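INFO batch 0412 | record 1 of 1 | parsing
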Amino acid sequence: MSFSQKVLNWYKEHKRELPWRSTRDPYKIWLSEIILQQTRVVQGTPYYFKFIEAFPTVQDLAAAPEEKVLKLWQGLGYYSRARNLHATAKMVVKDFGGEFPNSYEGLKQLKGVGDYTASAIASICFDIPEPVVDGNVYRVLSRYFGVELPINSTKGTKYFKELAREVMDTKNIRDYNQGIMEFGAIQCAPKKPYCLLCPLNDGCAALNENRVKSLPVKLGKTKLKHRYFNYLVLVDANQNTLIEQRKGKGIWQNLYQFPLVETGSIADHDTMVKELQQKPYGKNLESLVLFNEEPIVHKLSHQHLHTQFWILKPSEKIKDGISWDQIGSFAVPVLIADFIRTFKI
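INFO prediction complete | emitting tokens
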């Protein structure tokens, strides 16, 4: 029995019943794929339902304000995915008459749609024999065939794509692509693969050569950066506060936050008093209190944010302030959303 047939047989028996598996609608498949990038299925599924309910069609998503899209995305992280999602929906409506392209090449023209996503939509929706290669597929192929090329190198990426094409099942590409991804997620898992009961164990190079733990190979990660965030939570006598929208190309673009002071290390009370002397709202304060004694360490892919929330009580009313009761309607990073839930005025 061939490699692909074993994968298909396994998938038929073990596949999870996921909401996007019962459709060929490219909008829903595309939506699920974007949500599940860098997100586990159990976390992403509720977001899929939220987006389908709020935006049943690509036209609905394209017409929505960006702030609503970002608010629904809140908690998933990697917010560039949400902005690309919105931009792509607009592109589909404007440039493609509201219909997703029905070819691999056409799908790759869409913003935020690379090789993997184009391959997934093309094969699942249109039965186009294009192999998918995601983290799960890299793991299955590298272990089974004993490939030591780094999966995040240019040479490795090209090699695995070619290998995936050689072993795929062209007649049932829809189930095969979903099957090999599912196989990598459940059977050939990263840390505790079920090798003893694996249908591929007789021909698996990694298992036979005791290299399961060392494959796949990945080049060293980017050096981790540490940053020190101090959020200034102003609350006046009318329970109004001050928020601002993040601009530029950094993290959390277009999300809202409390005024931010970034320091070179963890700040103490005296440091913040000096910093606030440079701010228009820092000159007439009744009190300045640190909310969290220990900094909250918010871990992103290439940086750790050591975060403190400072509660400021101004002696005057805040000009153009926002009522604290309205804070929950703004799209904010999950770090700030967690603070808002715990802080009581």
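INFO post-check: The longest strand covers residues 303-314.
INFO record closed
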